[in-house]
TrEMBL record:
HAMAP family per UniProt: ISPT
Pfam family, one: Prenyltransf
GO molecular function annotations of the record: ditrans,polycis-polyprenyl diphosphate synthase [(2E,6E)-farnesyl diphosphate specific] activity
Keywords, in A-Z order: Magnesium, Transferase
Protein name, as recorded: Alkyl transferase
InterPro entries recorded: UPP_synth-like, UPP_synth-like_CS, UPP_synth-like_sf
Lineage per the UniProt record: Eukaryota, Fungi, Dikarya, Ascomycota, Saccharomycotina
């Protein structure tokens, strides 16, 4: 039965109908406020692989495919920035075979950033990698830097890839950068405020965070964007595993956010 369903969904006329429906959904959302910045904790790849009797790397590949669909929808909607939690610094504490699998997936999917016919190039998306780059293997770092260079002049949606990242490291980084400017007499102590601190954070060039989504049913932030998830940010905990998270889930979240923001502005 599952094979029949997959064939039905991939049938050309069905694909045309789904594309038409997605365009309609975008038009509906655009009648109201649209979030400027959305972030995702993409949790559940490992459990997806386990539940579907797949190898671990296949779970991460399924998660990557889901990410592409969500990015396409966000870009089509006109969201200015999307930030994804690709790899936590704490992930280095996982079993070595799992770390190797994650790094292997990054190596195989780096074409997403660097290839001439990549999604980022075709969609006019600008790529930024946020985190402690000293922890990134040299071959991946080189490819990441090429990708950032190749997309730096793109004028579409900004995609922040947090890798490797934790919010505590981000805050520590910002403190260090502010301190350097004070020592260099580029900044006085009286000039230090929320804005100057925010500007030195990894996400300092992004709009304020409107929505943070975590999948898999877990109700914790896992050291992700703790500073940005303030009272003006809506946090959505979703039961779906990340590979099962679809544009329909994203549509529901955006509709709810738009409705509540409209009430606030009334």
């Amino acid at each position: 039965m599952s094979s029949l369903v997959k064939w039905f969904v991939t049938f050309p006329y069905m694909q045309y109908g789904l594309g038409f429906l997605q365009e309609f959904m975008v038009k509906v959302l655009r009648t109201g406020p649209i979030p400027r910045h959305v972030a995702f904790i993409m949790d559940g790849n490992r459990r997806f692989a386990k539940y579907n009797h797949l190898e671990l790397k296949e779970g991460h590949v399924a998660g990557f495919d889901s990410l592409i669909h969500i990015l396409e929808f966000c870009n089509q909607l006109g969201i200015e920035a999307v930030t994804i939690y690709a790899f936590s610094i704490e992930n280095f504490n996982r079993p070595q075979h799992e770390v190797d699998a994650l790094m292997g997936m990054l190596r195989s999917k780096i074409v997403f950033i660097t290839d001439e016919d990549s999604f980022a190039k075709r969609s006019n998306i600008k790529i930024r990698v946020l985190g402690d780059r000293s922890l990134i293997p040299d071959d991946i770092l080189e490819a990441v830097m090429r990708g950032e260079e190749a997309t730096k002049d793109n004028t579409g949606m900004l995609l922040n890839i947090c890798f490797p990242y934790t919010a505590r490291d981000d805050i520590t980084h910002a403190i260090r950068e502010v301190s350097k400017k004070v020592e260099a007499n580029e900044l006085s102590l009286d000039d230090i405020n929320l804005d100057t601190f925010q500007n030195e954070m990894y996400t300092g060039k992004s709009p304020p965070l409107d929505i943070l989504v975590r999948t898999s049913g877990a109700t914790r932030l896992s050291d992700f964007m703790l500073w940005e998830s303030n009272m003006n940010c809506r946090v959505e905990f979703v039961e779906s595993l990340w590979p099962d998270f679809t544009i329909w889930d994203m549509y529901r979240i955006c509709i709810k956010w738009s409705y509540e923001r409209t009430k606030e502005l009334a």
